[in-house]
Structure formats: C-alpha cells, structure tokens
C-alpha cells in the first residue's frame, strides 16, 4: 500500500502502523462525517423521486402511457437508489471517518461497498442525461435549424466514456479485484494494479465530458427558445424549466475537481466525502432537470378569453421507437400532451366553429419517427400562397399566420382586396407569424422565380406552398374562345406548375424539406353538374395528376428527405369566383346545394384545418394524394 504523501509501497506489516502514524502526524481526530453524507444523499434523492413521480403521473394522466425517456429516467432513479443504499451501508461500516479509526473488521466492508457504489454513481447521471437527450431529440425535430446527430453522438459517448470509467474502477487489478478492499491483499496493490493516478486523470476526463454534456443540454434548449417567436415572458418561463441542466453542469464540474481524491488511497473513507456528496448532487440534478419540462404543465393556466388571440394548434410529438397505433389521434382534434410549451386558447369564427391550437410546442409521443403535428404548423415556417389577395387563398393564408407561420401572398392584382388589409391588421395583433403581399403573375416564370427566390433569401428558408391561384370561365365547349383556353390553362395548370417548381428550387437550396398543397377541385374528378366549363374541369384534372407526378419526383429529393406534394379538391365554395357564376347562371346555386349530402355550399374557412394538416408534419407520410372535401357531392 502507499502513504498519503508519496504513494510509495510500504512493508507487509506496516499498514496499521502507517495509518496510526499518519493519524498522529496529521492530528486526526475521530470525526464522523457519515451522517451528513446520508443527509445530503437521501434528501436530494427524495426531491428527485418526487419530481420524477410527478412527471410520470402527468405523463400517464395526459397520454395514458409512458415513453422511452420515461423508462430511462426510471432506470436512472433505480440506479440512484442503488447508490444511496450502498452509501448507507458504507456509512454503517465507517464511511466518513478516517480509515485509521475504523476497526479492522469493518474496513473491508467500508471499502467494498464504497467501490460498488461508484458504479451506481457513474451510471445514474449517465442514464439521466440520456433521458434528457431523447427528450431533446423530440424537441429539435420541431426546428429545421437544429440537427439530431450531435445529440445521438452524445448519447453514444455517454455510454462509452462512463462505461470505461466503471471498467477502470473494477478492472484496475485484473481478476484480483478483491485487492481493493481485502486487508490481507491491499499491500499487493502496487504490485498487481495500475497506478492510482490513472483513476484521477480519467476522472478528470470523464467529468469534463459530463460537464460538457450538461452544457450542451443547457445550450440546445436555449437555442430552441431563442428560435421561437414567443414573448419574452414565455421565453423566460421556458428557460427556467428547460435550462436547469446548468445546475447539473455546476455539480459535475465540482465533482470533477474532487476527482483528485481518487488517488488518495490511504484514507479513502474520509477523503472521498466531497466527491460522494457532489456525485449525489450531480445525478439528482440531472434527473430533476430532465423532468422539469413536463412539470411545466402544472403552472400553465387555461385562458378562455381569446378575443384578441389567434387560434393555435396542439402539437403532439412521436416517440422515436414507439409502436403504438396512432388511431386515437383520428378521433379528436385536440390530442393529449406530455409537455406544454404554450398556453392553449380557443377562437371561434362567426359560424361557431372552434379550433384549438397552440402557439408553442405541446408534446405527446406517438408512432412516427418525425414530429407529429396535429393539424398545426410550428413557429417561423415560411409559406407562399398564390392567389392570396382574396377568397380561399387569403383565408388559408390567415390560418397559416395564426399557426405561427410567415406567409407571403402572391397575386397578379396591383393591390390586394380590402379584405387582405383587414386580415393583415387582425393577424398583426397575434404576436406570431406575419402576412405580406407580393404582386406576381404566376404565368410569367422569370418574374415568379425572382419573387420566390427573394422571399426565400429574406427568411433564409422556405417550407412550402399553397397554389391557390385560379380563374374560371363558363361557356359551352362549342363556343369556347381559344384565347380563354390558353389563359385558363396557363393560370390553373401552368401557374401551379411554375409555382411548385420555383418553390421546390428554393426549398432544396435552403435544405428545407416541406409540403405543398395544390388547390384542385372536385371538378377535376367529375363533370360538375350544370357547370359548362370543360376547360376548367380539365385544368383541375391536370393539377391532380401534376400533384402525383411531382410527389414522385421529389419523394427523396433532399438526401432522402421529401418535398411532399398533395392536392386539395374542394367542393363548391362561396368565393367571389363562384358568386360570379351565380350572377351569370342563377340556377346553379340551388342545383349545387341540392347536389351534395349536406344541402349547402361550403365556406372558405372550412378548408383551413385540411390545409394545416397537409402542410404540417401531421401528414408526414402523405404525398401524391388528393383530399376531396365536397360535402359528399362526389359520393352519390
């Protein structure tokens, strides 16, 4: 064995004498710090247990199940209890006292359980950090600017580096591990085992890496919060709950400093006091920090007054490995959530129809490997809506802004309709998203490409398109002017084609996989009764086929990631274009109302939810499809 000063081997009969002599030289007294160790370890463990249990209760109440990050945090908690039990047993044998004052019969028990406790102490914070990393994988998937691979790499390195640390403890003496605690063999340490400073040096490295991991787990949530368009108050609240890893980082840094004592072999039971205390602080702070985002739901109030607030949408998230069916999500608009990062509010339109949405992220974990956004968009996405100066295009643009997106309405009108400015004033009060207008004729490729490129460059991204520009001309086929055929096909089909290509080019440039919704019509599937517009019907049929073709081409266009393309086929809508049809042919209104199963025409706002679904990651496996919403008109 070695003394506490030079780490030189002592003679075979000198251990007890050396201990006694050092005790005299150092003026040791029989101080017992064991009770204070137990007080710290069990008090902190009680706190972290309470936090984890509240987390699990919230999860079960909200989602009726647990997920992988929950399973891992439970395992971390079990390891923490293993550490606390070992420490309690070690204190019984004499941990916290100078080794010289511990009876020889108890020294072996103190050292043996002390070494065993190190394994629990290393692995408990490791699994706590992995649990938080998995939660971060869910969150970073909601921000196109964040990448998942650094978190995945950190998970792998956490396992590797901490496993090596435990391996060094129990492998330093080869297959004679009992040399570490058996009194009759301890004198063989320097003959059979590695130099003790290896433990200290690797402890510095391991602690530094864990501290860096905690820094990462603090910075990434801060970046996610900074990228959002939340109020300063909301950001401060989120920072409080998501950046608590800074406390674990401090504990890890102090524990790393105390790792110098790992080579002080002669008085292990006394010198490791601070190392053990800070190890307990570290793993408990890690578990608390990884659970606090879920606990934020306890502090969110349900605001029912939405007179000046936008509609927001529930944003559930998929578990990375869950195999549970997502059929429950099809039964209700507002799904349950694990982590509220926003306050839900409700807005009702004049018709009494309400949609609940969230400005910030509300998390549940379900079946896909991508963020599952239920009829919603996330903050800061950028969309272009052609034909957005009025009518259906403007209504859909407003819905996107309410969900937090930045929307650019494109139309050939020199100035948008008065409705646009009223909508722009209304959405400006929401505090999220934005609504702007660009005069562009979708028939002119160069002009369109320039406008789309300018929009994407302004925001450094483009996430999708709603191609709603279209015109109508009612006329018998035998009398249809050729110039009207050209104009209608150029706008209804050519404009959609050019818009999709222009947007796809910029989405690829800025590496933004996203979604496009091409506005078709049920008239592209049937001969719309009473509507003498063969060219219009044909143009919409072409749009449906275009959607399939572009979806095929762009399914893996960005390193395996897709630009999804789908077509929305509305039924008869009360828009300015349709009202013009009624002026020309008054009998159409009654004919169309009686032609569907609901006995009425649709309103533009009734397509908001469908477009939000198709543009968001809620429809992440939907491409090349057409969605018919016609009140049952085509189902007869």
Automatic annotation (TrEMBL):
Which terms does the record give in the GO molecular function aspect? oxidoreductase activity, acting on NAD(P)H, oxygen as acceptor; oxidoreductase activity, acting on the CH-OH group of donors, NAD or NADP as acceptor
Q: Where is this region: Disordered?
A: 326-349
Pfam families under this entry?
A: adh_short_C2, Fung_rhodopsin
Q: Which keywords belong to this entry?
A: Membrane, NADP, Oxidoreductase, Transmembrane, Transmembrane helix
Annotated Rhodopsin domain ranges read 54-299
PROSITE patterns listed in its UniProt record: ADH_SHORT
Q: Which InterPro entries does the entry mention?
A: NAD(P)-bd_dom_sf (IPR036291), Rhodopsin_dom_fungi (IPR049326), Sc_DH/Rdtase_CS (IPR020904), SDR_fam (IPR002347)
The transmembrane segments are: 37-58, 70-95, 115-139, 151-171, 204-226, 238-257, 272-295
Comp. bias intervals (Basic and acidic residues): 337-349
Record carries keyword Chaperone: no
Give the family this protein belongs to, as stated in its UniProt record.
Belongs to the short-chain dehydrogenases/reductases (SDR) family.
Question: Any idea what this protein is called?
Answer: Rhodopsin domain-containing protein
Which organism was this protein described from? Cryoendolithus antarcticus
